[in-house]
Specification:
This protein has a single domain, classed as TIM Barrel (Alpha-Beta Barrel), CATH 3.20.20.30. It has eleven helices and twelve strands. The protein has helices at 33-50, 70-80, 98-111, 128-131, 139-155, 193-202, 219-231, 253-274, 283-289, 301-315, 331-358, and strands at residues 12-17, 54-57, 85-88, 91-92, 116-121, 158-161, 169-173, 185-189, 205-209, 241-249, 297-299, 319-323. A hairpin with a 7-residue loop joins strand 6 and strand 7 (169-173). Helix 1 packs across helix 2 (70-80). This is LLM class flavin-dependent oxidoreductase. Keywords: Monooxygenase, Oxidoreductase.
Length: 359
């Protein structure tokens, strides 16, 4: 980490959900979309009360996920929370009208008293392209055009704009305006230097999805992002990096692994099945994936602390968000994980990072 050049700022810790509807591996039961959304709202309430900093909700457009209208769910969460920041995770920006997106999140920002954010990405799932009438051949161009328009909408109360994929805008008033001066926007990056460089040039935040393996391989992306941002004239202090990853926390490491393995194996069996891959995750595979040098956050609070701090040494990032509700994990275990993350992990991580930055 570039300790002397990366701006010191408050480190944030939170959780996010994609709202997957996966069968519980122990019972075979799948909860309804209605129950899943209720549990998402309740999880956000618990995270807010426990003192976590941010809560994210993902977007999918298929029956095996509960959330497609992300700003609607976040607006419901806004009504039952007080302090926690509310973000998409992620918005598939290539297949949404940027004007409508801005209006939705500006309204959310007003409802939540200035807590709305957006993580924008191209999307790992592509069902929204045919659903909303877009061509996959325009995948990259759509994203580039839409984020350009969104950033202009974010800066100005009225704009004139012309592009390739939607009708031109002539001296249009963009309303409502958010409670914040501008909506914070992050670009979600999976693993390509091109995406990292784009986020840097645009001056947005960059949220990296690190779902496993050696996190060190993502260090070049952070370097490219900051280099591109500085070359474009952006202030380094505004080039925020977030890390997202899968996790499960319990009082002991053995408990965490014993409890999480059936759900995590179940999750990847389900996801890989969608890709035509039938390989099953063995217990040995899981042990390797959750070892101390990897990016899978499974263990007791101290082990989670150590992994977050190790990644901070690499990236000097500003935010960490864990997805702890995948593969059919029951709500009582999600609630326990929120409590441990908020009370035993977050305070120590923030204290140690503050010490580090004082050196």
């Amino acid at each position: 980490m570039l300790k002397n050049t990366v701006e010191k700022s408050r480190f944030e810790i939170g959780i996010y959900t994609l709202g997957d509807l996966v069968a519980n591996p122990h019972t075979g039961n799948i909860i309804s979309a209605q129950q899943r959304i209720r549990e998402i709202v309740e999880a956000a309430k618990l995270a807010d009360e426990a003192g976590l900093d941010v809560f994210g909700v993902g977007e999918h457009h298929r029956l095996d996920y509960a959330v497609s209208a992300t700003p609607v769910v976040l607006a419901a969460i806004a009504q039952t929370t007080k302090q926690i920041k509310l973000t998409s995770a992620t918005t598939v920006l290539s297949t949404v009208d940027p004007v409508r997106l801005f209006e939705d999140y500006a309204t959310l920002d007003l409802i939540s008293n200035g807590r709305a954010e957006i993580i924008a990405g191209r999307g790992a799932f592509v069902e929204s392209f045919p659903l909303f009438g877009y061509d996959m051949d325009d995948y990259a161009e759509l994203f580039a055009e839409n984020i350009d328009l969104f950033l202009k909408l974010n800066k100005s109360e009225s704009i004139t704009w012309n592009g390739k994929f939607r009708s031109a805008i002539h001296d249009a008033e963009i309303a409502p305006r958010p409670a914040q001066k501008q909506l914070p926007i992050w670009v979600g990056v999976g693993g390509t230097p091109e995406s990292a460089a784009l986020a840097g040039r645009l001056g947005t935040g960059m949220a990296i999805a690190i779902l496993g393996g050696d996190p060190q391989r993502f260090k070049p992306l952070v370097d490219v992002y900051r280099k591109s941002g500085i070359e474009e004239g952006h202030d380094l202090s505004n080039l925020n990096v977030g890390v997202t990853g899968h996790g499960y926390i319990a009082k002991t490491t053995q408990q965490a692994k014993e409890e999480f393995y059936p759900y995590y194996s179940n999750y990847w069996k389900y996801v890989n099945g969608q890709r035509g891959i039938s390989t099953k995750m063995s217990r040995a595979d899981f042990e390797q994936m959750s070892s101390p040098e990897t990016a899978l956050f499974v263990g007791n609070p101290q082990q989670i602390i150590e992994k977050i701090l190790q990644q901070y040494e690499m990236f000097g990032h500003h935010r960490f968000m864990a997805q702890i509700d995948i593969g059919g994990v029951p709500f009582n275990k999600i609630a326990e994980g929120i409590e441990l993350l908020a009370t035993e992990v977050a305070p120590v991580v923030k204290r140690e990072i503050n010490k580090y930055n004082e050196i």
